[in-house]
């Protein structure tokens, strides 16, 4: 665990030169973001590929729950009350512990504004 309480477990990343041919199911806006956004529905147990928009590298994640189109998937393990990054900035705080592949929505994230 890092000094800010964040776990160090991350989704597995692959370079853009990877030889595997597959379709991505989620996008990540910036390297270092904690979540990706589903570009099509993701089923629990499905092994899915995400693409980092800033360099086209890939990440491979096993979904731990159904994730609807437009909703978020966790790319890192986080403990409760930790900052959540998307677009390279903090978008909220966790309200529960997360594991890579978890469905991220109002049940486990809240705004950091109030």
From TrEMBL:
It comes from the Bacteria. Residues 1-12 have a biased composition (Polar residues). Residues 1-22 are annotated as: Disordered. This is Dehydratase.
